[in-house]
Amino acid sequence: MKMVMPDVSDARELSTYPLELLEEMYRRMYLIREFESRANELFLRGLMPGTIHLSHGQEATPVGTCLALRDDDLITLTHRGHGQALAKGVPPETLMAELFGKATGCCGGRGGSLHVGDMAFGALPAIAVVGASAPIAAGLAFACKRRGSGRVVCNFFGEGAANKGELHEAMNLAAIWALPVIFVCENNLYAVSTHLSDAMLNDYVSERAAAYRIPGVTVGGNDPIEVYEAIAVAAKRARDGRGPTLVECLTYRHGGHKRDDAATYRPPEEVEAWLAQDPVPSFRQRLVDDARIGASELADLEDEIRAIVTTAVEFAQSSDFPPPESAFDNVYA
To answer: Cys-Cys crosslink for 224: which of 3, 60, 213, 258, Cβ 3.0 to 4.6 Å?
Structure first.
């Protein structure tokens, strides 16, 4: 299998894009990186319950995706969903509180790291079962189409879900009914410790779109501009009533599958090559090279983000846990 890395020399020229868009891309990418770095530190200190799945290295994909969507569009999240939630606008305070299991969390402290989200911001709380959100995304898209709302649904999934039956059932129905849904594959090459080449013969996940006669494209998932452009095309197609698109974003998680995974199954030269394409510092340098914003201005923005995350941590730690008598709230079976 020839899993080709994106060519960084082919990065999009920034001068043709509004500075406001580029700044917002970097702001959200840096927020995700800082938020997860702080969450990781707190988890390792034993201050956070459960476990966490970090998206270090994958920040550009959800940011490019969500900025190409309308505010009222919807997304479905994965178990690696902190970045997806933040990219869609879920406040850092309520997201951090959810990781601590506090009542002020975006899911009332009942979901934890694996089930974050907030429908007030168009982010369906994550479903941790791999591939299980695809049929729900199709259902949401069916409702959007039936109501004539013009809204689009974006279903995030990993390449590990590409072999799950429910994903293919959802893509098939979405294609037949021309549903306004975008299937976004965050392809970080490994389903836990299994390399994609051990699980499928296709060179790319996007090739599978042909089976449903829908467009399938593969883009560099570490370039928010490249992702943004692909999602913008897919979103227009969906709003025009022409159905779904499968967008595969090639990216790479910096660490293991979760906190107890040292990721020793990955070749050192592969890790080194992908770390050299770290989307956050890479995009920062591109902004500086663009010359419309200086390094000092970006440093100020980073200081602002760090302060926001500090406030989020303080909010989470000072919040109360849900009262015991609320244990059966919203339980229907």
So the answer is: 60
Residues in the chain: 333
The structure tokens 């799945």 sit at 53
Q: For the beta carbon of residue 303, count every other beta carbon within 10 angstroms.
A: 10
Helix ranges (H only) for the chain are: 19-44, 60-67, 82-88, 92-99, 133-147, 165-176, 224-239, 268-275, 279-290, 295-318
Q: Among residues 32, 112, 2, which one has the least CA distance to residue 309?
A: 32
Lookup result for tokens 């015991």: 324
Confidence bin at 1 (pLDDT 50/70/90) = very low
Contact residues for 234 (Cβ-Cβ < 8 A; gap 6+): 182, 215, 244, 245, 247
**Can you tell me the distance from the alpha carbon of 117 to that of 127, in angstroms, rounded to the nearest whole number?**
10
171 alpha-carbon distance from chain centroid:
19
DSSP state letters, 123-171 = EEPP--STTTHHHHHHHHHHHHHHHT----EEEEEEGGGGG-HHHHHHH
Put the strands of the sheet holding 153-158 in their side by side order: 123-124, 74-76, 153-158, 181-187, 245-250, 216-220
pTM > 0.90: yes or no: yes
- Could you tell me the CATH superfamily of domain 17-311? Thiamin diphosphate (ThDP)-binding fold, Pyr/PP domains (3.40.50.970)
**What is the token pair recorded at 133?**
């959100």
Q: What is the pLDDT of residues 211-266, one digit of tens each?
A: 999 999 999 999 999 999 999 999 999 999 999 999 999 999 998 888 788 889 99
* Interacting residues of 236 by C-beta distance below 8 A, sequence separation 6+: none
59 Cβ neighbours under 8 A, 6+ residues apart: 28, 29, 32, 33, 83, 279, 280
Question: For the CA atoms of the chain, what is the radius of gyration?
Answer: 19
